[in-house]
Amino acid sequence: MDIDVRKVAELARIRLTDKEADALGPQLNNILGYVDSLQQLDTSGIEPTAHPHDAAMPLRADAVTNTNRRDELQASAPKVEAGLYVVPKVIE
């Protein structure tokens, strides 16, 4: 199973030199060969491992815990108008 390193690099938008492509070809072939050998294993009698989607998430009450503190937070602002911060114009 020879992999076209240049094609994979192009799809991944990775720029490779000729030296890098020559070095990566055998490495990628080894990885894919290992994955292929894993797919040949008989796993019919093996229980699946835990999956994060199997766990139930604890739920909390859907209640407002923060009150409106706008006036308190804007008290230290130099200028506020209609509940909004007024800042100096910086673009003419």
The backbone outline, from C-alpha atoms, is: flat
- Note the run of SSEs as H and E: HHHEE
CATH class identity of the domain at 5-38: Mainly Alpha
Gross CATH architecture of the domain at 5-38: Orthogonal Bundle
By DSSP (H or I, 4+ residues per run), the number of helices equals 3
Question: How many strands, which pairing sense, and closed or not: the largest β-sheet?
Answer: 2 strands, antiparallel
User: Which sequence of strands runs across the widest sheet?
Assistant: 1-2
Class computed from helices, strands and strand pairing? mainly alpha
- Poorly predicted spans: none
Query: How many whole angstroms does the radius of gyration measure?
Result: 30 Å
Q: Would you tell me which CATH topology of the domain at 5-38 applies?
A: Histone, subunit A
Q: How much strand?
A: under 5%
Features:
mainly alpha, 3 helices, 92 residues, two-stranded antiparallel ribbon, Histone, subunit A
What's the SSE blueprint?
Layout: H1 5-11, H2 18-39, H3 70-74, E1 80-81, E2 84-85
Antiparallel strand pairs: 1-2
